[in-house]
Amino acid sequence: MSIKHAAIVGAGVAGLTSALSLAAKGISSDIIEQAPQLGEVGAGLQLSPNATRVLDQLGVLPELERHWFEPEAISLVSGTDLRPLASVPAGDFARKRWGHPYGVLHRSTLQQGLLRAVLNQPLCRLHLGHRVQGIGPDSIGAITDRKADLVIGADGAWSVARDSIAGSPSVSFSGNIAWRFTIDQAAAPAFLSRAGVTAYLGAKAHLVSYPLREIDGFNLVAIAAGTKSDESWAIDADAARRAMLLEQFSGWHRDIRTILSGADRPTFWPLYQASQGNWHNGRDTVLIGDAAHAMMPFSAQGAAMAIEDAFSLAAHVARAPLPSALEAFSIERKARAERVKARGDFNRFAYHARGPFRIGRDIVLSLRPPERLAADLDWLYGHRIGD
């Protein structure tokens, strides 16, 4: 083992998973979080088999399965006429093909499941309400009273830890906006699938819907490209932002526009992405999750990539000297993140296609059976750390 103790900046999905992954290797950690209590902005998220495989190995999955919903399929539907375009089977199919389940759940369910596991793990200590002022032994030690062999920046797209690494990635607005909101089951229109995840596709925009058991309702995320942002982050949408939402979906089916116009307290999320750059300083500091590779949600892999990063980093630092472990981790995970990002870019083009490209997309999708579409995802959902 190359290290005995780590300090983790950030107690989100990446940070908590990192603490549990290190503990599984016998490595202790201090998790430092500036918020006085843990909570998640937003509503739902999707956990594909590549993520649930890790959570299962960490002993967290059974708790999540008691609360989540397993969709029967992930479907693509026309946003203009509600015509089905394609479907990838999930449910029992996912468990058999990729070895682990595909689930949708409230973000707080995942965070609280990870948090309970951390609080029950003697090798993990959590420090809430502490803002790190620079990444260094003095600033970290002032909070934890312990010297860290490794500092892990798991503090998201606006990472403080990233500033301590020369040549690290920079973050910029992607040109895409997300509006997130929920609908009660009783108020949801009949066309929203109660059995699966559905992505409604349109010109320069798409809408994702799926049930959430925890709220007895639906999670909806509307994403539009080519919009501008004043860099506000996860705020309640005011009248101007609501008008922007309806403008972006102006040519859509009237039933979808009715949902959007009646959305109760939608939150406005400008989407940011990270450039290429260094993920570690070669000695004792490394980035994971959005701090390293914030990307667009077009493959629904944000949480999954953070979970994979955390598990992979623990495996590397447990078996190799720290400088070489950080380099090996970076090489492995950069290649993985780039491939996932490329898939997301492809999905963005396909989901938001217009004109002849849209017609061609619909023809190609109609000719591909569900099993063939699932096979295209084997590299993503079937991934195992170390493979």
Automatic annotation (TrEMBL):
Residue ranges annotated for the FAD-binding domain, each copy included: 6-340
Taxonomy, superkingdom: Bacteria
Catalytic EC class: oxidoreductase
Keywords noted in UniProt: FAD, Flavoprotein, Monooxygenase, Oxidoreductase
GO molecular function: salicylate 1-monooxygenase activity
Gene3D superfamilies referenced in this protein's UniProt entry, alphabetically: FAD/NAD(P)-binding domain
EC number: 1.14.13.1
Cofactor list: FAD
Name of the protein in question: Salicylate hydroxylase
Natural source organism: Peteryoungia aggregata LMG 23059
